[in-house]
Design goal:
3 helices, mainly beta, 14 strands, 227 residues
């Protein structure tokens, strides 16, 4: 099977996803911050997203929102909000992963980001019967490896390396079928010294989303720090 067939299937899954809404739990462990709680995730492709985290007593821990042009991250406990251009990456600022908002939106839905340029190779894994797709973008020195199940073709793991150094690893498990496609209920992302664990309880795709939800209104007195 040529690699182009697998890439085409991944692209079709990406193209059919217009919005993603989920409720579950999230846990972040980093070098400088640790938090966990109930998560509310809303994604509108290509690059609008909103993430709200409440602790298990119902108190807000963190709000993050991007409308595709500007992002705002507010942690009420610090009474400070970070604001910057979405090109810098909302999740990149929040959890120190080198992701553009478009890529972050897809990974939060358990969808593999793809690109057209560069070399693509496909390998069969004899130990698991699965497949390994290797995508290489030579100018940026970026390599993305994608592990896929043999029968279903579901992506179970992504690893990104730039210049031989690992930037990001994401694993997906416990898939459910929605509108003919599979979405993982469990997502684990690791990069640098940060690890994010997500478990979704409910997932909905391609619902109508009001664009106003991606604008985060801040209360008076909150210090805004440019980023």
């Amino acid at each position: 099977m040529p690699a182009s067939v697998i890439v085409e299937r991944l692209e079709k899954k990406e193209e059919q996803l217009r919005s993603f809404r989920a409720v579950g739990s999230i846990k972040l462990k980093g070098e400088k911050q640790r938090w966990s709680g109930r998560a509310f995730v809303l994604v509108q492709l290509p690059s609008s997203l909103r993430l709200e985290v409440l602790n298990f007593f119902g108190q807000p821990v963190m709000y993050a929102a991007s409308d595709g042009s500007e992002f705002v991250i507010w942690q009420p406990g610090d009474n400070r909000a970070y604001q910057g251009l979405a090109t810098r990456g909302t999740l990149a600022r929040l959890i120190n992963f080198p992701l553009r908002d478009h890529e972050a939106a897809l990974l939060l839905a358990g969808v593999v980001p793809t690109w057209d340029q560069g070399e693509q190779k496909l390998f069969k894994l004899s130990d698991t019967g699965g497949l390994l797709l290797k995508m290489e973008d030579t100018p940026s020195r970026l390599i993305q490896e994608v592990w896929l199940k043999g029968k279903s073709g579901d992506a179970t793991k992504i690893e990104r390396l730039r210049g031989g150094k690992r930037e990001l690893e994401a694993t997906f498990s416990d898939f459910i079928a929605i509108e003919g496609w599979s979405y993982p209920k469990n997502i684990v992302m690791e990069g640098g010294k940060t690890r994010v664990t997500i478990h979704y309880e409910r997932i909905a795709i391609n619902e109508h989303v009001d664009a106003s939800v991606f604008h985060l209104s801040l209360p008076k007195g909150v210090e805004i720090i440019p980023w």
